[in-house]
Amino acid sequence: MAVSERGFVVIGAQFVFFSITDLRTLKEIERGSYPVAIGEDIYATHEIEPETVDQLVVALQTIDRLMKDYGVRDVQVVGSHSFFEAENAQFIRDQLQSRTGLVVSPLTLSQESFYRTQAVLGKFPNFNQVTKDGTVLIDISSGSAELTAFADGDFGFSRNLSLGPLRVFEVMSDLQRTVPNPVEVMRDFIDSRLADFMRLLPKNQHYPHVILMGSALSVFSALIPTGSDTVEIDRDGFKLLYQEITHASDQYLSEQYDLTPTETAQVLPTVLLVYRLIKSLNSDEIWISDLKLLDGLEVNAASEAGSKAVNIDSDHEILISARNLAERYMVDPKHRDFTVKYALQLFDRLKKLHGLGKRERLLLEIAATVTDIGAYVDTHKHYEHSDYIIRASELIGLTAAEQRMVATIARYHSSDTPQTDLSDLTELNANRRLVIAKLTALLRVADALDASRQQKIEKIRVSLQKDRVLLTVTASDDVELERWSLRTKGAFFAAVYGLPIELKGKTRL
């Protein structure tokens, strides 16, 4: 088996999906799924039951044997956010590792959103053409709906709603048996959850196109039979389907569409949820896609491997997400862009000193972008507010640890000096604390270079000398305030890197 071939496994709320993919060509050698309804356990009892764990073990062992039969050694196994919603998820994760040898990595909601975006960017037919107008990607799993917006062919924003059909069904199941019109009650429940999302949508932006994807949409393969992986339907056509489903009995749906009892129970909340979303967005065209989170893992891995089959920038959506967060909290764009520019220049020109890589450079760029968002709450100790806002926000594509690192870098970029070794951050390991310290030191220097908030510095030359780091700048005005600020903030740089940093500048006449 070639080195370029990799295995992927996703433990979702109702299925364990897997694939073996050649990253050079993005062609799947094998793909399949095993039904394991952990979502029913989680939404009913908040825990994964022992019988379900046994089913998971059998599925993973079968998949593992298949991977070995193909000679695949590199296998990525992830658990969806739904899996880790279970109160006993960490125990189950340990049990799965001891019984199968497979390590299940957790995904945050923002990571799931990132991988779904990668899936449509890499695999959805004519994606660039479709998204020239406003388009919303709606990924519906059993427990949640992830909405990702595109405008002018580019990523806009992402929001997660705890509003999957199985969750709706479990919440509403008791009520459905006691009210005369359960459809209206379910509709009102869904609308109440959509209200805040609609309020946060950008003003004056129309979304005529909707792309539906996700594991919960498997019911549509029975409701709208087709030989294609992607189905297009207009709003009137979907309205007819909605009217049929909302007036049909469970027995009719089961017999008419050959559905299992579990599938039948999810038809109404799934169709109702999609219809209310389409109506709220006032969309005209709907694409129902078979793309899943699994596809995003494949596309991202191929992109990171430098595959010519994928022509996307994996970091692009992450940086747009950070910029959107900065704009939401009204960060000064001129100071933000200045800080980002010179933080990255320092990173690139001092690589021999810090020894960090591409991913750490991305974290620095994100931190420099969002570092001042806390000023929206209060300019006094704004860095403290930045810390908790970043931790509570959805920064697409970051792991939970990376998001915590970005928040900490923002927390310490200002005058609040941390312990030099950051040993108080016990939730982060020593390697991550070292990365935080190195990036914080660089960000402090970049921030100090615009202490006046007038962007006086036009050009910078970085010289790594035996006894110091010398910054020689060309500026449009006097830089004494910047020099003073660097002396203050540069102390942490010297503590981290073992060299003082000095500013030498001349004013352009």
Task: State the main characteristics.
about 500 residues; alpha/beta; Nucleotidyltransferase, domain 5; Hypothetical protein af1432; 3 domains; 6-stranded mixed sheet; 5-stranded mixed sheet; about 15% strand; globular; pyrophosphatase activity; Ppx_GppA_N
Task: Give a verbal description of the structure.
GO terms for molecular function: pyrophosphatase activity. InterPro entries: ATPase_NBD (IPR043129), GppA/Ppx_hydrolase (IPR050273), Ppx_GppA_C (IPR048950), Ppx_GppA_N (IPR003695). This protein has 509 residues and is an alpha/beta fold. The protein has three domains: 5-107, ATPase, nucleotide binding domain (Nucleotidyltransferase, domain 5), CATH 3.30.420.40; 125-290, Nucleotidyltransferase, domain 5, CATH 3.30.420.150; 316-507, Orthogonal Bundle (Hypothetical protein af1432), CATH 1.10.3210. It is built from 21 helices and 14 strands. The chain has helices at residues 38-45, 50-69, 81-84, 89-100, 109-123, 127-130, 165-176, 182-199, 220-223, 235-246, 250-257, 261-281, 293-304, 316-328, 333-349, 351-354, 358-370, 382-392, 400-411, 430-448, 480-497, and strands at 5-11, 15-22, 27-35, 75-79, 105-106, 135-140, 145-151, 154-161, 209-213, 230-234, 285-289, 457-464, 469-475, 501-507. A six-stranded mixed beta sheet has the order 8-7-6-9-11-10, with helices on both faces. The longest helix is centred in the middle third of the chain and has 21 residues, at 261-281. It is globular and about 80 Å long.
